[in-house]
Design a protein that fits this description.
The chain is globular, with a radius of gyration of 20 Å. The chain has helices at residues 10-22, 61-77, 99-110, 158-165, 175-178, 182-191, 204-213, 230-236, 263-273, 283-288, 293-302, 316-326, 328-348, 359-373, 413-421; strands at residues 3-7, 32-36, 49-53, 82-86, 115-118, 126-129, 132-135, 138-139, 170-173, 196-199, 219-222, 254-258, 278-280, 309-311, 353-357, 377-385, 388-394, 398-404. The protein has a 15-stranded mixed β-sheet, sandwiched between helices. It has a three-stranded antiparallel β-sheet with strand order 6-7-8, with no helix packed on it. It contains 15 helices and 18 strands. Helix content is 39%, strand content 20%. A hairpin with a 2-residue loop joins strand 16 and strand 17. With 425 residues, it is an alpha/beta fold.
């Protein structure tokens, strides 16, 4: 492998795996595999880029560091010459971490300096200017992310936010340098005294310029956008030939499991519910043991062929109310387990197309499906919407997954994902 990625959640891992597999025309991308946790053996033959999915975004800091270092060592053992630490394009983290502490540990282990941080992903409206992160035309802390139940982002100044999380010096790579191209960016990196640098990026061209400038960087950090130009470096250097993501289609029963409370996901649920059966999870029923995987499986089996959707979602006020009643951690653990056990039951019952929404939910579902099939590597397929590919697992049985973070996807994402999984346009 050439590029190794350490992603702090499952949907983020799928996002950057999609970016690496797709690449940029006319060069194409890399043959990419996504792994559920750190593999115990060697990577499959012929893989150019490996993406390790961790569940470290909201883990205790020391645990996140420990797991990330284990992932780093495995990737280096596979021959990776460049490591990317992938986090969300909205820089999801608390004031104490985990982005800063993990990046600091990786940089120390790799002896890397002048490490670039760029969460920008213009294709989904995330841009960085003057060190501030925007979602569309709104500053991050006025975008709805300030109400995130686990990582409320209350400051759009990413330099300041990262500064709270690390002992390293934090600088700024301004757009005035970025827009002048790779040579100017490289010169700015050579001149800086800062250990960590927040890089501005407003367009895909900015990200491609950054990618070209970072061809020799040991460690890169950012959202999936930072990886746009990285495959091109290896392809143009002759390390691999031009490649594109493989296409495929799979038939079979379908289900949608939603555990995200983001505004975008709530809209997607409403759009889907207008024409398809939905099941709203009763949280008190879950906590009392009345809502079980068997109940959800029965609903999905009853509506095979109708794109059934099961969801646990609500407004920020509703989420706050149930968290106060049951405790945030206890509630999250119980819902993740419910979705994971339901996903495993669906696969066992013959379901072959599963769409998941929500970072924590998707992670739990992906792990459960991998365990159910005895699979570790997920193959990256076509892109559904910016940042969200189809993933397939094949261990005698082919199962297609779509793992969507809360804020990604068009309003009709769910039906679009199921349709594309079936090979239909």
């Amino acid at each position: 492998m050439l590029i190794g990625v350490i992603a702090d959640d499952f949907t983020g891992a799928s996002d950057i795996a999609n970016t690496l597999a797709k690449g940029v025309a006319p060069d194409g991308g890399l043959r990419t595999a996504q792994f559920s946790g750190v593999p115990t053996g060697a990577a499959p033959d012929g893989i150019d880029a490996g993406v390790i999915s961790l569940k470290s975004r909201t883990a205790p800091v020391e645990q996140a560091i420990r797991e990330s270092l284990v992932a780093l060592h495995w990737l280096l053992e596979q021959g990776c010459t460049q490591i990317v630490f992938k986090y969300c394009s909205t820089f999801d983290s608390t004031r104490d971490g985990n982005i800063g502490p993990v990046a600091e540990a990786l940089a120390r282990e790799m002896n890397a300096d002048s490490v670039v941080f760029c969460p920008a992903f213009p294709g989904t409206g995330r841009t960085v200017y003057q060190g501030h992160l925007f979602v569309g035309d709104k500053l991050l802390n006025a975008s709805g992310m300030e109400d995130h139940p686990l990582t409320p982002m209350t400051d759009a100044d990413i330099r300041r936010w990262l500064g709270h999380q690390t002992t390293r010096s934090v600088g700024h790579l301004a757009h005035a340098s970025i827009r002048q191209g790779a040579d100017v960016i490289r010169a700015a990196l050579r001149k800086t005294d800062a250990d960590f640098l927040i890089a501005d990026a407003l367009t895909d061209d900015d990200l491609l310029a950054l990618g070209a400038a970072l061809a020799e960087a040991k460690l890169v950090t950012g959202g999936s956008g930072i990886a746009m130009g990285l495959p091109r470096n290896f392809i143009r250097a002759g390390a691999v030939g031009q490649r594109t993501a493989d296409g495929f289609a799979t038939s079979g029963p379908e289900a949608i499991l939603v555990g995200s409370c983001s505004g975008a996901t709530r809209v997607q649920v409403e759009v889907h519910a207008a024409d398809h059966p939905t099941f709203a999870i009763d949280v008190p029923g879950v906590m009392a043991g009345a809502i079980t995987p068997e109940v959800l499986l029965d609903f999905c089996q009853t509506h095979i062929g109708q794109a059934p959707l099961v969801y646990s979602s609500g407004t920020p006020d509703q989420v706050t109310a149930v968290q106060q009643r049951y405790g945030r951690e206890a509630l999250a653990t119980r819902l993740d387990a419910l979705f994971a056990e339901t996903a495993a039951a669906l696969v066992g019952a013959g379901f072959r197309r599963i769409v998941a929404a929500g970072g924590e939910t998707s992670g739990a579902i992906a792990q459960a499906v991998c365990r159910a099939l005895g699979a570790s590597a997920m193959t990256i397929g076509p892109e559904i919407d910016p940042g969200v590919p189809i993933l397939t697992l094949e261990e005698g049985t082919i199962v297609a997954l779509a793992l969507k973070s809360g804020n990604f996807g068009a309003p009709d994402f769910f039906i679009k994902a199921l349709t594309l999984m079936a090979g239909e346009v």
